[in-house]
Amino acid sequence: MVAGQQYAINEMAGLLGLQTPAGAAAGIIDTLLTDSRKLVSPATSLFFALEGPQRNGHLFIAELYKKGVRHFVVAQPVDEAAYPEAVFLHVNDPLKALQQVAAAHRNHYAMDVIGITGSNGKTVVKEWLYQLLQPYKNIVRSPKSFNSQLGVPLSVWQMSAENNLAIFEAGISRPGEMEKLEAIIAPTIGILTNIGPAHSEGFTDDAEKLAEKLKLFKQAKVIIANGDHPLIGEGIKPYPAVFFSWGKQAHNAVQVLDILVKEEETVIRVKQREGDPIELIIPFTDQASIENALTCTTVLLWLGIAPASIISGMKGLQPVNMRMEFKQGINNCIVINDSYSADLNSLTVALEFLQQQARGKRKTVILSDIPENKGDALQLYHTIRELLQRYGVNRLIGIGEKMQAQADLFTAVPECSFYVSTDAFLEQFHSTQYLDEYILVKGARKFGFERIVNQLEQKVHETVLEINLDAVAQNLKTIQQQLKPGVKVMAMVKAFGYGSGAAEIANVVQFHKADYLGVAYADEGVELRKAGISIPVMVLNTEANAFDALTDYNLEPDLFSFELLQAFEQHVKNAGLKHYPVHIEVETGMNRTGFAVSDMAALAGHLKDNEWIRVQSVFSHLAASEDQVEDSFTLHQYELLMEAVGVLESMTGYPFLKHIANTSAILRFPQLQLDMVRLGIGLYGISGKERVPLQTVATLKTTISQIKKIKKGETVSYNRRGVAKEDSVIATLRIGYADGYSRRLGNGVGKVWVNGQLAPVIGTVCMDMTMIDITHIPGVKEGDDVIIFGAPVPVQQLAEWIGTIPYEIMTGISQRVKRVYYGEG
Ligand SMILES: *Cc1c(COP(=O)(O)O)cnc(C)c1O
């Protein structure tokens, strides 16, 4: 997915120390592909079949070959006769081969390469250096926060002859990794942002961690870091590099004289040993930003950038927002808002995201002029055209004088229009021009594209449920790390994905290779299919009147009684189908749905040689897996399932999957993982008492519609339940029980997060509004955001306040609350 220079395949083989395979000389490679889902240019991709605990790249060779990929780096034997046109390069370790290729590529260039490591701030420092140095240099940098053993080679691969500065991040999680990254990046300028606590990264102490990080600087001419930190100064001593440090102490190359944090900005005065003091103003006030700004200042001074330019650059620093946000737009459009930067690198990242999300839907890109590095506008716009074509963009709306000047270049995009300015575009804007498509809005800051996003966004009631799709993907990964190798995952997306949106969640888990989806009703499965979800779906509540929907949409029913089984068989027969996939539920103690264990022999007799249905899995559901007191009951349920499975397996004569574990069982009973687990609430970020680092997925937010002052003794809301104990300030929120904010949270039971503090609900919760007491919280204004639940107020906490469980709160958020999705999933 990352396109860099072009190499002939025989050169590639040479870089890997391999003989050129016969007949392979003609192939040209410009893309190193490591993820089959990111395939864009098959003919010129070299696929590295990486092997990980969850995924084996070799399994995707057939699919990629079918799509036109012809060049593969493999470690396992492949049936080469099946791929007559393919070239296979055989290596011991494809990841190592990828790193080797990148390292060789890096060695072709003599430009300065900045390597950034440290515990925090790597991405911000990289992006800020880019913002600051972009007027002077033609820079290549890591996309997003590509800083791992895999991300670094893909970043370095982008280096090309046009660049004269490279900036790459290096992140490590265990000893021994930095040497490999050093060999690929070979920085000439080293930056250590800071050094945080060792425990998080698999190191025994700070000194060990620091020593590992410093290995990145083996060949560096200079190392830039905080010189006040005693460990750092000590650790750097063995390195040949100059230590160009910053800090408050006088020995530092760049001495920090003072730091004055104001309301909205920070004034920093620094001084080089032989220079005059320089006064910098940065538009940030937090400690991390100040530290990152000092690192950047020191780099700029080392590079000889004039103080006046540093001052103006620092003043204009933009926040780094690496997340991409997508919103429901007008006319069923999805708007991807990336209006904070415009350069080739981030355009590539955004187009890739667009392609992944749009899944075949129409794609429109609204793009501003892109600031050029070194004057060659024609080359730049040629590259942009190539990218737009490569990612299959259907419509381009170009805004700005330069875009307009290059209009002729873009005739290859099926539909194009150009406007000289954002105003000119907005003047002719008409909502009917956008229908049922994905729209990427990408522009340099000065074009003010947020005004365009504003037009494209659907306006609604200001209570939203924000869903972080990256957190969903991360939670899936975290849970998968708890699974034994080969255990499959069924992601439960019933009840509108626990309130978070079934299709959106399903799309993320499908992308991340979950094996199955679970829904409660056939209708929910139909919705998933209509949204383009293709992985198998199990339906829990099978009903006769939904049989057509099941077979029409290839959904797999849970059969839990003989009546249901026979009726469904009849339906399959009538529909002219055979061997239809079904699931058998066994009753082991929940006493909800399921065949009795004593039914198994009769059931097996019925299933044997059955032409109409075929059992995909046999499962049961645990009644109390989260409850330690009931652990022996849980294990008894498991044994009953095993007994049932034993009978079925021996008599039906074919294998099927077995599963019983829900989220808490996954975390508490590894032996219950069997062939598959059914992951529900954990996917949405809730792990119960188990301390698994799951991320918050859903944040329920609303806004303040009015603030009023009342006197001691006055009352608030219906039935005068909320009595002011003192002269008070009351804020009214745009949320009520009709949105899913329970009446039980009224009268001080519930609290919400306002301006960094908890404020109690005062009086009764109304249908569409709720009042809170903000007497002791300064600085709150009408229109301010309020968090009902999310990271600062976990949904578990809300559940506890009213004696329920997170499941009930999450699934109770009403449909009128708009769901806003962000992250890349
Ligand atoms: C909802 C459900 C799950 C998921 O349970 P969690 O506790 O949310 O992980 C698993 N299996 C069945 C049958 C379910 O109904």
From TrEMBL:
Q: Which residues bind substrate?
A: 592, 767
**Domain of life of the organism encoding this protein:** Bacteria
SMART domains of this UniProt entry?
A: Ala_racemase_C (SM01005)
N6-(pyridoxal phosphate)lysine: modified positions: 494
What EC number(s) has UniProt assigned to this enzyme? 5.1.1.1
Q: In which pathway does it act?
A: Amino-acid biosynthesis; D-alanine biosynthesis; D-alanine from L-alanine: step 1/1
Q: Which metal ions or organic cofactors does this protein require, according to UniProt?
A: pyridoxal 5'-phosphate
Residues crossing the lipid bilayer are: none
The active site consists of: 494 (proton acceptor), 718 (proton acceptor)
Concerning NCBIfam families, the annotation shows: alr, murF, PRK11930.1
Instruction: Give the family, as the similarity comment puts it.
Output: Belongs to the alanine racemase family.
Task: Relate the protein's function as given in its record.
Answer: Catalyzes the interconversion of L-alanine and D-alanine. May also act on other amino acids.
- State the organism's lineage: Bacteria, Pseudomonadati, Bacteroidota, Chitinophagia, Chitinophagales
Name a GO CC annotation attached to this entry.
Answer: cytosol
Q: Which Pfam families match?
A: Ala_racemase_C, Ala_racemase_N, Mur_ligase_M
Protein name listed in UniProt? Alanine racemase
Catalytic activities = L-alanine = D-alanine
GO molecular function: any one?
ATP binding
Boundaries of every Alanine racemase C-terminal domain copy: 697-822
Naturally occurring in which organism (per UniProt): Niabella drilacis (strain DSM 25811 / CCM 8410 / CCUG 62505 / LMG 26954 / E90)
Q: Which GO terms describe its biological process?
A: cell wall organization; D-alanine biosynthetic process
Q: Which UniProt keywords apply?
A: Isomerase, Ligase, Pyridoxal phosphate
Top-level class of the enzyme under EC nomenclature: isomerase
> Keyword DNA-binding: yes or no?
no
